[in-house]
Amino acid sequence: MDPIIALATPPLKSALALLRLSGEGVFDAVSKSLDMDLETFLKRKIQVGYLKHKGQIIDQVVCFIYVAPNSFTGEDSVEITCHGSMVIAKEILSHFYSLGIRQAERGEFSARAFYNGKLDLIEAEAVNDLINASTIESKNVAMLSLKGETSSLLYPVLKQIDEMLALIEVNIDYPEYTDIEEVNLSKIAKNCESLREDILSLIKEGNEGKIVREGIKVAIVGEPNVGKSSLLNALVEEEKAIVSSIPGTTRDIVEGDISVKGIPLHLLDTAGIRESKDYVENLGIERSRDAIKNADLVLLILDSNEEEKGSDLIELCEGKECIRVYNKADLLSEEKKKDGRIYISATNKDIGELKEAIYQKLGLSDKAFHAPSFSNARELALLEKIADSLFEAKNMCEANLTSDLISSCLQEARLYGNEIIGKEASLDLSEEIFSRFCVGK
Ligand SMILES: Nc1nc2c(ncn2[C@@H]2O[C@H](COP(=O)(O)OP(=O)(O)OP(=O)(O)O)[C@@H](O)[C@H]2O)c(=O)[nH]1
Ligand SMILES: [Mg+2]
After folding, report:
1. Ligand 1 contact via 248 beta carbon (within 6 Å)
2. Domains of the chain listed by start with CATH number
3. Within a 10 A sphere around the Cβ of 347, how many other Cβ atoms?
């Protein structure tokens, strides 16, 4: 394909920077830029030299040479390491643009690896997950997908669908042959049901894997002055939000990121919810309501020294995963504490019990940390579709419908399976996926 180039390291001052080139003619372009003939250039896997533009030295660089198909993209590729000044990196980029090598699109290196069969779609997505991982645990899960272990979860299911399809098709196409195993609808129905159960457990494991990989959004909500901002500060271990004894201190959402036992938590401290005539405070309260709606988990903070009121807040949290947290426990005598409640003191940073409760609420199995799973929204949505098609096929068998109807339903399931792996993925779909990636990958 046409040659492309991109900076693979961040556009910041650092000791070194790395540029990647891939596609037709890149060896020619780089060797010329080093004043080397192509043959000499390709004699080694690593070349050191002065990279020049119109005879002027830009920098002394190291080039790593990858001959197709033995490269990440499957094409002829070169990685150029230069000194980590953005002036140098930009000069090198401009130099290669002048030789007709264009800037890579977002994710184009991974897209080429996919189209050249170096990675399947799941593995390509794992490259993105690996780069975006914020904890060791999420990185480890992405690494399993990159090694192809996730893809291999689906192959046995697809193989069984193929076997059922083959049996049905051969009966439709060759009804005159008597030595072919006859389609037994109740057996096919049973197979569909058991495959559907396999898919449903893949979905369950995927949802857990998603939590390990992406983490969850946690909204800290409650009435004014209960200590929401103090709790955010205690969790992030810095004075991020303003704390004061004046009710209605927080107006805008204050965000913070932490990890609890390797699970990334994105925290949102919100404005205290109450009836107010203050215009700006009401805008803040509206944001608090939105934060509850969009959160995966709500921490409803209550003052353990005050009578619990049947507030609107409990209503707002209905249908959400929610933990009630009793703050200011340092002001409460031991005998007044009630069993089964989570007591904390945000001021004293006494919040260990809450962290444990959050982790328990996620209900993650050990497997979520160590086993491969289909954990992104695209894969999970397609798995749901496979489960639905299998359910439909099972119902058709039980209703004694014709083989060609059952076959088309199974074929549908098969196509969704292919789409997960990216075999029959339409160009648009792949483009949508790869556009989420960084350019230099
Ligand atoms: N004794 C004690 N005081 C606390 C604790 N947590 C917060 N406070 C105090 O309670 C007051 C309110 O704390 P904030 O963290 O600002 O409360 P908030 O819920 O964010 O309040 P708004 O932003 O107004 O909704 C401050 O004076 C804090 O010092 C606690 O655990 N113990
Ligand atoms: Mg506050």
Report:
1. yes
2. 4-115 (3.30.1360.120), 151-212+371-434 (1.20.120.430), 220-367 (3.40.50.300)
3. 17
Question: CA angle at residue 272 from 269 to 278, to 5 degrees?
Answer: 125
346 CA to centre of ligand 1 in angstroms = 8
The label of the residue with tokens 């953005």 reads 86
Element (H, E) at 299: strand 297-303
* Residue 138 CA, distance from chain mean position: 9
331 CA: nearest ligand 1 atom: 1
Sheet with 16-22, strands from edge to edge, namely 46-53, 56-66, 77-83, 16-22, 4-7, 102-103
- Would you say the CB of residue 235 lies under 6 angstroms from ligand 1? no
Cβ-based burial of 193 (10 A; exposed 0-12, middle 13-18, buried ≥19): middle
pLDDT tens digits for range 235-282: 999 999 999 999 999 999 999 999 999 899 999 999 999 999 999 999
Residue nearest to atom 10 of ligand 1 (CA): 227
Tens of pLDDT, residue by residue over 218-227, are 999 999 999 9
68 Cβ contact partners less than 8 Å away, ≥ 6 residues apart: 74, 75, 76, 77
> Is 229's C-beta closer than 6 angstroms to any atom of ligand 1?
yes
- pLDDT per residue over 79-135, tens digit each? 999 999 999 999 999 999 999 999 999 889 998 998 898 888 888 888 888 888 888
Helix axes 377-398, 185-214, angle to 10 degrees: 160
Handedness of CA 195, 197, 203, 204 (dihedral sign): negative
- How far are the Cα atoms of 69, 199, 346, 440 from residue 391, in angstroms, in the given order? 42, 11, 50, 42
Pairing assessment for the beta strands 4-7 and 102-103 based on DSSP bridges: parallel
For residue 344, which atom of ligand 1 is closest to its CA?
31
Give the phi and the psi of residue 339 in degrees, each rounded to 5.
Answer: -65, 150
pLDDT digits (tens, 9 = 90+) for 154-200: 989 988 998 888 888 877 776 666 666 667 888 999 999 999 999 99
- Ligand 2 centre distance from Cα of residue 302 (Å): 13
Closest ligand 1 atom to 226 CA: 19
Q: Is the CB of 251 under 6 A from ligand 1?
A: no
